[in-house]
Specification:
By secondary structure, this protein is mainly α. Helix content is 73%, strand content 0%. It has 20 helices and no strands. α7 crosses α9 and α10 packs antiparallel against α11.
């Protein structure tokens, strides 16, 4: 039964990805031969040691849909689960990337959200990165998959693990109810800008609910107009006001919403840059974005990265990682 469920999600996701997924670095392998790929993977895991290069070459150069076919054929011919076998062969960050690549998109998002929630402390960054950037349709499928995979409601888990206004913003995003039309209501846009101004910069303290109502409900074109009006009324950019008025995770989620509405690839480019700059690397963020966006908009993310930071994403990854982990990330990044 699960295979059929996965197939239907996979098909739904593929139907979407033909629309949103034509700016990826990972494209369909032209001479795709599923039996050959299965044999290469089997050979890579035979005997002592693992041929990681072969695993990377096969999986990083295939689309999500092609990887599903490889998984099915592997189970059919070997009688074992490919993810389980690879888990036994790989370690560390390379293993995390490979296991992520084997999942269909909503399953990977659900898995990342679950990982962020369970255990001690919450990785708020994962909740924000995913929920602020996905479409209504994507969020609906993620919540379905989450329930099927984990047996609990994503909303319940998030409510139990977060608090205050941050929790309320996430719950609002989870309803997947944002207006997705292109209509701009001029009168409403001016009113929205005034409401946000009066809820923040113009008063002592901040009425965060007003921000939530406008930023989580209105459509993209309308909000871009609101941001223009806000600049006129307040003399500030909306992002500057959010930084002045909010702090912590609430500031982060509102900024992520605004940045994703303005330019989603630029938002991800900034997240990648921050994951690698300075001492140490936030691998969870780096892996999540490289895996999740490789087939969707990685070409645009790379362009925005070079524009903003004067260096290529490729060169940053190259200098910030090593070994097989570096190899697989660079495959996903493309030249």
């Amino acid at each position: 039964m699960l295979v059929h469920q996965q197939d239907s999600f996979s098909q739904r996701r593929q139907a979407e990805s033909h629309v949103i997924g034509n700016r990826g670095t990972v494209v369909e392998a032209a001479a795709f031969n599923v039996e050959e790929d299965v044999n290469r993977l089997r050979g890579a895991m035979k005997g002592a040691g693992t041929d990681e290069a072969a695993v990377i070459e096969v999986l990083a150069r295939r689309t999500i849909a092609q990887r599903q076919r490889i998984k099915e054929a592997y189970k059919l011919t070997v009688g074992k689960d490919l993810a389980d076998d690879l888990q036994g062969e790989l370690t560390g960050n390379t293993e995390k990337v490979v296991l992520g690549l084997l999942m269909i998109a909503p399953k990977y998002d659900a898995y990342e959200l679950r990982t962020a929630i369970k255990g001690s402390g919450t990785e708020e960054a994962a909740l924000i990165d995913i929920l602020a950037s996905r479409t209504n349709a994507e969020i609906r499928v993620i919540t379905e998959v989450y329930m099927k995979e984990h047996g609990t409601s994503l909303e319940d888990d998030i409510e139990a693990d977060t608090s205050g206004m941050f929790k309320r913003v996430l719950v609002s995003l989870l309803t997947a109810g944002r207006d997705e039309s292109n209509t701009v209501n001029e009168t409403q846009a001016v009113q929205d800008a005034k409401d946000i101004y009066e809820a923040g910069e113009a008063c002592w303290g901040t009425d965060e609910v007003k921000f939530l109502t406008v930023l989580c409900v209105r459509n993209r074109n309308h909000l871009l107009r609101v941001f223009e009006e806000y600049q006129k009324i307040s003399g500030r950019d909306i992002e500057d006001s959010i930084k002045r008025e909010m702090s912590g995770s609430l500031e982060d989620v509102f900024l992520a919403i605004v940045k994703c509405l303005r330019n989603k690839p630029a938002f991800f480019a900034e997240r990648l840059y921050k994951s690698m700059k300075g001492l140490g690397t936030t691998d969870s963020v780096l892996i999540r974005i490289m895996v999740a966006r490789a087939e969707i908009d990685m070409l645009d993310i790379k362009t925005e990265f070079s524009k903003a930071y004067g260096k290529t994403l490729h060169s940053f990854i190259n200098g910030d990682s090593s070994g097989d982990y570096r190899k697989i990330l660079l495959e996903l990044c493309g030249e």
